[in-house]
Every structure is written in C-alpha cells, then in structure tokens.
UniProtKB/TrEMBL annotation:
Keywords: Hydrolase, Membrane, Metalloprotease, Protease, Transmembrane, Transmembrane helix
Coiled-coil residue windows: none
GO cellular component annotations of the record: cytoplasm; membrane
Organismal lineage: Bacteria, Pseudomonadati, Acidobacteriota, Terriglobia, Terriglobales
InterPro entries membership: MBTPS2 (IPR001193), PQQD (IPR008792), PqqD_sf (IPR041881)
Name of protein: Peptide zinc metalloprotease protein
CDD domains: S2P-M50
Length: 640
C-alpha cells in the first residue's frame, strides 16, 4: 500500500448526499404480475430500468404498493393499518424502504442515477483484490449484446402463423419423418456424429464452415425464443453470445416472459429454440435422404443434421447446466434457482456434518433434501466434467503438434479455468485449519509422529510400488480376410451388415450377370441334349464314342458355368465380424471384378496395438511388464 492509498483509506471522501428529498415510489417502467411459485403466491416485479427481477410475498407487496412518492412513512403506516389491520412503525417502514433502495427497486431520476454511479465508482476505485475478469466467471462469460425488441416487432406480424394449429401439426409430422429416417440410418448417423465433433481431425476450412453453420443456426434458435416471448405479450431487450462452462451458446433475454406469461407459456418459450432446430433437422434429413450421395445438397443437409441432431438436443436440454433444459426443468418442478440452492445446501451440509464447522443454512423441507443432494452432486460432476473435457481437448490438440510441451498450454488453460475454485479451496482449507489446529496439535503426540514417519518411509521404499504408463490402444482381430468380386455383376441383394457375425462359407451379397446366367442355361440345355443323344445311341446300338465325348464336354461346360454362377455370390472365407461400413449401400450398384465387398475379422483371437508416447518409452521394461486394460466396465491384467 503506497502513501496515497493509505491516506485514501484513513481519510475517505465524504459520500455525496442523495439529491432527492421525496419519498420512494415504484419505477413507472416496472412490470408487475401475480404468479404462483412452489405452490405459494408471489408478486413478480421486473424493473426495466435496471434489468432486475424481484419476487415479493403478498405481505411485502401490500406495503410496497403504498409507496407512491407522495405519502410519508407515517401516512403509509396509518393507511396499511386501516386497510389490512396490521400496524407497522414508521422506522420499520423506513428500514424496509432503505433495503429496497439498495436493491435498486425504487425509481431514480437521471440525476440520482448519476450520483449513485459516482458513489459506486469512488467506493470501489481502489478495490483491486479478487477482482473478476472483464469477461466474468468461467462458468458464464458474456461477450456482447444488443436490444432486439424492434427487430421482433417488425418480424412478428409476418411470422405469427408459426404459432397456428396447422403449422404445429405439420411440424409434428416432420418430426415423425425425422424419427423414422434416423432410426433406419442410426448406425451411420451415430458414427458420423462422433467423427463430425472430433475437431482434432478438422482443417481450418472445416472449422470455419462449422462455425458459420453454427452461428446461422444459433441465430434462428435464439430468435425463436425471443419471438415466442413476443407472441405472449412480453418485450425482449437483450440478445448476444456467451460461454457456459466454455460451451459456446447464444442467449436472448426473455425475462419478461416470467412476468407476462403463464407456466405453460414460459415452457413453450424455453423449448422454442430446440423446436426450431428440430424443424431444420427434419427438413435437412428429408433432403439428405432424397438426394444422391456426393452431391452438394446431400453433404450440406447432412452437416445440418449433425449440428441439430440428437447430440445437440441432449446437450441443450440437459438440466444440469444453465441452458434451455435447466430452465425447462425449473418450470416443471415449480421453482427457480435450484442449482444455487442445492449447491449451497450441499456445501453447508458438508461443512457442518463432515468438517464440523459452524455454518448457517437456509431451511430446506425434508421432502426436498434428497433431491437437493442428488441434483447438486450430478450438476457438479457434469459441470466439472465439461471443464476437464475442455482441458483434455486442449492437451490433445497441443500434443499433436508438440508431444513434449503440449502440457504447458493445457496447464495454463486449466489454471485459468480453476483459479477461482482453487482460491475458494485454499480459503476453505484455511478455515478448517484455524478451526481444528488446536485439536490436531493435541492429537499429534511424539509417539504418533514417529509411527506416521515410519509408515511413510515403508510406503515410499516398499518394493510393491510400481510405475504406471497410461496409453491408448486399439483392439484388432488376429486374422483378417478381404472378400473381392471375381466377376462383374449387379448387386441384387445384400445378406450381411456391418458389425454382423458371419460363418465361413456364408454368402455376403448376391449378384446378377446376364452372360453368366445365359451361359449356365445354355450349358445345362447342352448337357441334357447330349445325354438324350447318348441314351438314343445306346438304344440303337450305334457308335457311342462321339456322343459320349460330346456329353462329357457338355458336363465340363456345365460345371464351369455353375462355378461361374457360384462366384456371383461372394462368401466369407473365415468366421468373424463384418468390419467395413456401407455394405448395405451396395444394393443395386454394379461391381467390377476385383471390387472389395467386405472385410472379415476373426474375433476368436484379438491383437492389441498400444500407442505409447515417445517420452514414456524408457519407462517400459520388457522384463517386468504387466499390461492392464479396461474395456467397458471391467479391468483385466496379464503379464507380457
């Protein structure tokens, strides 16, 4: 602290007095509506001047509505006692009004707002410690916003047909088509979705295209929220871009829906964004299904499908972070702020019951306690899982370019993301230490310290300790076989699918070749004709040598024709699993000789290909190597 700061702390400036000498009153721009939350009546007040929302119980609201800027506190106390039969003192009302003044409920003139802003700046100009970043907390970083109310006012008259009954029926029909086509092609869509969101394999142009489509769809998503809010009579005064646990998302401020709309209307407002994305997905799915593969429309529609499909819907409708699913869940259960309330309850429970610290907790009914604990745990696991996924993703990207130093940028990102939580953890550890230090010092006697030191030495130098190297691996079949066509033909049926187990000798596809078919028919007819001639020669006792030779030659030709016909049905040379994708798409196509039909992998004996990073190779010693692998939920170990 320098001299100027010391003087500022010792001799602070006198606060500027409030300019207005009148009495409090409600802001004329405030919007008020009666509502029911958690089974209790509440008055919801939205102050548009400050963008703050307040909830008051009926008792509080009876007092607030008496403040009109003209009555003094004594008059308000007398009027309240006359109307409701409950008497309050003028000092109590003055204290109540002062609390609402700090909460910025009352109306302020432009001059009063200027004075209040000056006081706020002067009181905080030297407070730099623990200052938030200009982008906010990592859980929610907001970048920009604009007032879209006039935009929605202009487009609503031309789009209100979107809320008609016939259009709702049409969209439900589209969703049914989407469901049927998705189920019919689910295996392909599932694999392509994973590949589509694997950013480490994308080029710069792929990333640019991804974000352009994402921004396009995101604009319509948020516009659907705002337009639905406008449909129910509310105004929309905020729209922009933000990150929720580093997950990119757009936002639109539909706070007035909680004032003007009913619970069902608020729920419709919340799911409107997902509803529009599903419309895009349904139309794109129909275009993808009806256009030839490889065409521009086919590929673009498929990207729209993957960006608006099941994966995005599941993430957006997840109630564990504050996206659409969280607010829909809050409306369904009937009360808001469940994330904050459940987290505070679990934190207080841990502090009081586990660490035995003095703590003040808000009362929670017995019926809600299990739900609070479950939600707080699931939400915390999911939120931290998202953060760890971001760190892991950054490490994978950086290690791709520099395996030795990839951990440095990933570590910096992790430090930036978790610094607030680490600071909170250190403060909590300090609190626990100060509360328990006397008890711990009394427990650590000389004998116990010696035992703990001896146990530590034994653990550190025990020969049972081993060094572990973690690496990814790929399981491959011990034997593979590639099935090719030996003659050309058109595929008339496919009898195997990707991932299906086949036995040796089972047909994979059935082809048709007119030349082979006519050759087989001709060879069969020739063999039958020469057979009849042979019988006639035997009955006539004529020379049979030439007839027998012709019959034998016809038999050879028939055998060759049958073998050619058998080659029209390529068969699996070994028993195993069909490994290649797209086998079912061969139906109706013409295949030349030598075309790969399928790849069969024998799964009776598998081979693991382990990818160990270069820096970890010296730690792998063959003479004492144990390999443990985890597949699904089971872990197995074996000595190499």
């Amino acid at each position: 602290m320098n001299l100027a700061e010391a003087l500022n702390a010792a001799l602070p400036e006198m606060p500027v007095r409030r300019v207005s000498t009148g009495f409090p009153k409600m802001d004329p721009a405030a919007v008020v509506k009666a509502n029911v939350e958690d089974g209790e009546p509440v008055m919801v007040v939205l102050n548009r001047s400050t963008d703050k929302m307040f909830r008051f119980n009926p008792t509080q609201w009876r007092i607030i509505e008496l403040f009109d800027g003209v009555r003094n506190y004594e008059e308000i106390a007398a009027l309240h006692a006359e109307r409701y039969g409950v008497a309050y003192g003028a000092d109590d009302l003055r204290e109540f009004a002062a609390g609402l003044e700090d909460a910025e409920l009352w109306y302020r003139t432009p001059l009063e707002r200027s004075v209040a802003l000056r006081q706020k700046l002067e009181s905080g100009r030297h407070q730099h410690t623990h200052r938030k970043s200009k982008w906010g907390d990592i859980a929610h970083m907001q970048f920009s916003a604009w007032d879209p109310d006039q935009y929605f006012n202009r487009i609503y008259p031309y789009t209100k047909w979107l809320y008609s009954g016939w259009f709702t029926a049409l969209t439900v029909t589209l969703f049914a088509c989407l469901l049927l086509l998705s189920l019919a092609n689910w295996q392909q869509i599932r694999l392509d979705t994973v590949q589509f969101y694997t950013f480490t394999q994308k080029s710069a142009s792929d990333l640019a295209q991804f974000w352009l489509i994402f921004l396009f769809l995101g604009f319509f998503h948020e516009s659907a929220h705002g337009l639905t809010c406008k449909h129910y009579g509310a105004e929309v005064h905020g729209m922009g871009f933000h990150l929720v646990y580093l997950t990119p998302a757009f936002f639109v401020d539909v706070s007035e829906a909680w004032v003007y709309a009913s619970r069902w209307q608020r729920l419709v407002t919340i799911i409107a964004g997902i509803w529009v994305e599903m419309i895009f997905c349904a139309i794109a799915t129909i275009v993808w299904w009806g256009t030839p593969p490889g065409s521009g429309a086919h590929d673009f529609a498929y990207k729209i499908m993957l960006l608006t499909g099941a994966a995005v819907v599941v993430v957006n409708m997840n109630p564990l972070i504050k996206l659409d699913g969280y607010y829909a869940f809050s409306e369904i259960i009937g009360f808001s702020d469940i994330k904050e309330k459940s987290t505070a309850y679990l934190s207080g429970l841990a502090r009081g019951q586990i660490f035995r610290l003095p703590v003040e907790m808000e009362y929670v009914t017995r019926r809600r306690r299990p739900g609070y604990v479950a939600y707080a745990l699931l939400s915390g696991i999911y939120s931290y899982g998202l953060l760890f996924t971001v760190v892991r993703f950054s490490y994978n990207v950086c290690s791709r370019y520099s395996p030795q130093w990839g951990f440095v940028p990933a570590g910096i990102i992790a430090l930036v993301m978790f610094r607030g939580r680490l600071r909170t953890l250190m403060q909590f550890a300090q609190t626990v230490y100060l509360d328990k230090k006397d008890r711990v010092r009394a427990w650590w006697t000389g004998t116990r310290v010696a035992i703990a030191a001896l146990a530590t030495l034994v653990i550190l130098f025990a020969p049972v300790l081993h060094e572990t190297v973690t690496a990814r691996f790929v399981m491959e079949p011990g034997e593979r076989a590639v099935v090719r066509t030996t003659i050309p033909g058109r595929v008339v049926s496919v009898m195997a699918r990707e991932g299906e187990t086949v036995t040796a000798g089972s047909p994979l596809i059935e082809m048709e070749n007119r030349e082979v078919r006519s050759m087989r028919a001709g060879a069969g007819s020739e063999f039958a004709l020469t057979g009849m001639k042979r019988v006639e020669a035997q009955l006539d006792h004529s020379d049979q040598g030439e007839v027998i030779a012709e019959h034998a030659r016809a038999g050879v030709e028939r055998t060759i024709a049958e073998e050619e016909s058998e080659r029209l049905s390529p068969r699996a040379p070994i028993s195993g699993v069909v490994m290649n994708a797209g086998l079912k798409n061969l139906a109706g196509s013409f295949l030349d000789a030598g075309t790969i039909v399928a790849e069969i992998g024998a799964t009776g004996q598998m081979r693991a290909r382990i990818f160990v990073l270069e820096y970890a190779l010296p730690r792998v010693r063959e003479e004492s190597l144990w390999i443990c692998w985890r597949m699904g939920g089971s872990v197995s170990c074996d000595r190499e």
